[in-house]
Amino acid sequence: MRLFLGVDGGQSGTTAIVGDETGRILGRGEGGPCNHAQAVEGRAKLERAVSVSVAGACGQAGVDAAAVRFAAACFGMSGGPEDKQAILERILRTERLMVTTDAVIALAGATATGQGIITIAGTGSIAFGRNGEGRTVRAGGWGYVFGDEGGAFDIVRQALRAALRMEEGWGPPTSLRAALLEATASRSANEALHTLYSSEWPRSRAAALAPLVDAAAGEGDRVAGEILSGAGQQLAMLAGAVRAQLWRRGEAVEVAYIGGVFRSGRVRERFRMLVELEEGAQCGAPRHGPAEGALREAYRAAGLDPELKAR
Predict the structure, then answer these.
(1) Burial status of residue 183 (CB atoms within 10 A of its CB: 0-12, 13-18, 19 or more)
(2) Could you tell me which of 95, 99, 96 has the C-alpha nearest to residue 85?
(3) Could you tell me if 290 and 14 are in contact, meaning their C-beta atoms sit under 8 angstroms apart?
(4) CATH of the domain at 95
(5) Would residue 181 count as lying in a domain?
C-alpha cells in the first residue's frame, strides 16, 4: 500500500495527515509549532513538532513511523520553506518531498481543483492564487509593520487607536475603550498602549482581542462596525489584486476564505459581497483545511488526484 503525507506546519501547531493512494485518510496527528528553523532551538522545535505529528498520524494509520517510506509528502510551512527543506529531508523517508508555503496548501484544500484564490486572515493577512496554467500570484503578507491589513492584529491596532483618539478628545466615543481597558487591566488607553508594547503581549496575544471589536459592533458601536467593514474591504482588495493578475475580467474563479477573522459575520459578509461584485467570482468557505490541502498536493506530486475520503 502506497502512503502519502500532508503536513500543515504553523505558528500555533503542526497537523499531519496520512492517506492511501485512493484518497482515504488513515490517520491524523498533532504537534507543536514549527514556523522558525534558523536557530538551533528553532530547528529542534521543528524536528520535534514534525516527528510527534507524523508519529501520531502513522499510529492511527496502523503503520510504523520509523519504518514507513512515503510515496510523496508535502509540507506547507508558515514563515516560508527555504530553511526547512534540508531538515525535513534528514528526518523523513519519502520518494518525493515538496516543501512550500502555508498559502499554497490552504488553496489546495480550499477549492475543488486546487486553483482559484484563497484569502487568509488570521493574525496577519495574505491572498494567494493559482490559475489553470499553474501561474501563481500573492498579494499582501508584508507583516504587521508594513501590512497585514484586515488581519486580527490590525483590527486590534485600529481599535486601540480609536480608544486613544477618544481619550484625547479628537475621536468619536466608542465602547472599544472600555473593552480594551478591561481586557488589558489598564486604567487608561495610554496605559493599554504601553501594555500592548510589552513582551507579555506578543502579537498573537494582542490579535486574540479582535473578537472584542466584533462584539462591540454587534451592540451597535459605530466605530467598531467601521473597523470591521474596512477589514472586509481590504481583504477583498487583496483577493481582487490576485484575480486581476491571473484571470481576465468575467472569467469564472473560485474564491475561498480562511482564518479566525472570518468568524466575524460582518467581515465575512462584507468580503463575500465585494468579491462577488466581480462577474464570474464565486466566494465561499474552504472545502478542506490546510493539512488536507497538503495531502492533496502530495498526491498531485505523484501524478494522482483522488477525492479525499474519511476513514
Answers:
(1) middle
(2) 99
(3) no
(4) 3.30.420.40
(5) yes
User: Judging by beta carbons within 10 Å of its beta carbon (0-12, 13-18, 19+), is residue 128 exposed, middle or buried?
Assistant: buried
- pLDDT at position 162 is 97
What pLDDT is recorded for position 81?
66
Question: Are the C-beta atoms of 210 and 260 separated by less than 8 Å?
Answer: yes
Q: Is residue 238 part of a domain?
A: yes
DSSP 263: G
From residue 301, alpha-carbon distances to 2, 131, 304 in Å are 14, 17, 7
Cα–Cα distance measured from residue 240 to residue 88, given in angstroms and rounded to the nearest whole number: 35
Q: For residues 33 and 161, state if they share a domain.
A: no
CA distance 117 to 242: 7
Per-block average pLDDT, block size 10, for the chain (311 residues)? Answer: 91 89 94 67 81 93 91 86 78 91 92 92 93 93 88 96 96 97 96 94 92 96 97 97 94 94 96 94 92 95 90 72
Report the pLDDT value the prediction gives residue 41, as an integer from 0 to 100.
Answer: 66
Does the residue 42 lie in any domain?
A: yes
Residue 127 lies in a domain: yes
Please state the domain count of the chain: 2
Give the domain range for residue 37.
3-111+288-301
* pLDDT at 109 (0 to 100): 93
Tell me what pLDDT residue 112 has. Answer: 86
Same domain, 20 and 153: no
Measured between its terminal Cα atoms, the distance across the chain in Å is: 15
What's the pTM? Answer: 0.87
Residues 135 and 239 in one domain: yes
Supply angle C-alpha 68, 74, 75, rounded to 5. Answer: 105
In the numeric block, the cell 474519511 is attached to 310
Q: Is residue 125 domain-shared with residue 265, that is, in the same domain?
A: yes
Which residues on neighbouring strands pair with residue 128, listed in sequence order?
A: 118, 138
Say yes or no: 65 and 132 in one domain: no
